[in-house]
Amino acid sequence: MDWAGLALWLSTGLVLGFAATWLARRYALRRQLIDQPGARRSHQEATPRGGGIAIVLVLLVALVALAAQSPARIRELALAGAGLLLVAGIGWIDDHRPLSATLRLCVHVLAAGLLCTALWLAGGSPFDLTVAFVAAVVLTNVWNFMDGINGIAASQAVLVATVYALFAGDGPVLWLGLALAAGTAGFLPFNFPRARIFMGDVGSGALGYALASLLAVSSLHADPGTRILLLFPLLPFLLDATLTLLSRMLCGERWWEPHTRHAYQAWARRSGHARVAGAYALATVLVCAVMFALRSSPWSFIMFSYAAFLSSGGVAWMLLRDRSMDRRSDPFGKGRP
């Protein structure tokens, strides 16, 4: 491995991410792109948004650099980059002027289709394309749902992207994963422990789409055990987002609207943003350590381990939820007598 090139790649992404976030903050303050505190938000101070555009910039630069080094992959990289631009673009517009959830979802579906086309050109099977489509739509929205307290979405993206890069060991997943991790790490000091800017929809959606792309490429032609292992780093976010969404749907709520009903938000109200973001990061490190430990295990044992994490995570989600919720308004809540 070219360690000098790796160091240059990481340092460039880190510096570019930091500088672009600083510029994005100045832009947001000048344009008055400010998130105000409210009942459906977890922050207590007016804070500018849109800092995630810096991460998008780092990823686009990385895609161009990879295309220059590997002309044979230029079509696939261009399609993935176009999908990223669509997701980031609709998020950027939404950060300036709120758009309907239906319109945003339609754009996400189109972007997922572009990713599928890229994988088809790379020789992906129908199953590979299905995995890519579902991952792109789901993770784009999951990262948006889970971007509700300081540092949590960015720190999780750094960890997941780094793990995917190390798991791949070489190729585009390595370099794009490290670029994503470096660019997000450059943004993180502006968002944690005190938020001087939020990433906004432009950043949260782009992070989810980029991570889905890494997952899809890593899963290409993989065996069942590897496909399951690649889901491990996503477990903390997927569990919280899925169970909260299911709970809200069963309650008949407008589940697509902003809210503060996630387990991490309920916990943050009691313990603060930094402790919760740190705990979620530790949980991700734990499942990723198990992921690498199980790399040579039979797929049946990997599936058993995944199911065990799902079960324990579901219990943790129930315990972390706000205990003041009435059982009648929350079918998963414990309620109070």
Describe the structure.
This protein has 13 helices and two strands. By secondary structure, it is mainly α. The protein has one domain (8-32, 42-320). It has a two-stranded antiparallel ribbon with strand order 1-2. The protein starts with a helix and ends in a 17-residue tail after the last helix.
The amount of helix comes to: over 70%
What's the total helix number?
13
Integer average pLDDT: 90
Q: Could you describe the largest sheet, including whether it forms a barrel?
A: 2 strands, antiparallel
Radius of gyration: 19 Å
How would the blueprint of this fold be written?
Blueprint: H1 3-31, E1 34-35, E2 47-48, H2 53-69, H3 74-96, H4 101-121, H5 126-145, H6 152-168, H7 172-187, H8 200-219, H9 224-229, H10 235-250, H11 263-271, H12 273-293, H13 299-320
Antiparallel strand pairs: 1-2
Helix pairs in contact: 1-2, 1-7, 2-3, 2-7, 2-8, 3-4, 3-8, 4-5, 5-8, 5-10, 6-7, 6-8, 6-12, 7-8, 10-13, 11-12, 11-13
